[in-house]
């Protein structure tokens, strides 16, 4: 009897803004303000669409999640946390088939808003294959068959802010240091409110008060009342000399106003190996 090796691959998408897959989801992120609701409920929706030449059946289910210090989603199957949005969620349909490129609209309703705590509540809506795809892989060993079992799961983060919520970001620290032959920056940010802070921005490299280079910073999320840390490379095509790294980040506060977080640090580039 031949030995059968099975490999299970779960394609777990925490952020699907740049997913290049057969399935398209819009929007890829949902943020709601319960204070703008006229009743004790809130409704939203999203669409799911596959290629015209594909027929795929999907199931939907929510999970609670936390946000790590690296801005990543940590999904938790079951939680009794007060900011868990799942007990308030109702969605239709919870299973459907995509075919002929026709989009499927999923409606989500959040009920009993009055019992939710002030601040941010959240969940992630997962869209997952009902049937896994099996792919047979070639093997040099005639006595071994290798089967690849592929299952796709897409996640849409959903946030609801309610009552008195506050979004306050701070730029705690910025450093530049040498790591092997590379120069790297390390920054630490924090959010002191009861709702997450999502920022975007850019970094400038300045020499003799003149802009030498500018590059975009990764957009990330700082969890409510938490910290965020990131380490990244500084461009390696700089001439020897003294420079300033200036980071300019922007986020929206609870009023929807743009707020800037700015910090700069001096560093030196040397030609020595």
Overall description:
It is flat, with a radius of gyration of 23 Å. The N terminus is likely disordered. Strands 1, 3, 5, 6, 8, 10, 11 and 12 form an 8-stranded mixed beta sheet that branches. The protein is 0% helix and 63% strand. With 273 residues, the chain is mainly β.
Which ranges are low-confidence, i.e. pLDDT below 50, for 5 or more consecutive residues?
Answer: 1-21
Rg over CA atoms: 23 Å
Shape: flat
Helix content percent band: under 10%
Sheet with the most strands?
8 strands, mixed
Quaternary status of these chains? single chain
Can I get a quick summary?
With 273 residues, the protein is mostly beta strands. It is built from no helices and 19 strands.
Identify the notable features of this structure and list them briefly.
273 residues; mainly beta; eight-stranded mixed beta sheet; 63% strand; flat; disordered N terminus
Topology:
Blueprint: E1 3-13, E2 24-26, E3 30-33, E4 41-49, E5 56-67, E6 73-76, E7 89-92, E8 95-98, E9 104-111, E10 119-129, E11 133-137, E12 144-162, E13 169-179, E14 182-191, E15 197-207, E16 210-222, E17 226-233, E18 241-252, E19 258-269
Parallel strand pairs: 1-12, 3-12
Antiparallel strand pairs: 2-4, 4-9, 5-6, 5-8, 5-10, 7-9, 10-12, 11-12, 13-14, 14-17, 15-16, 15-18, 18-19
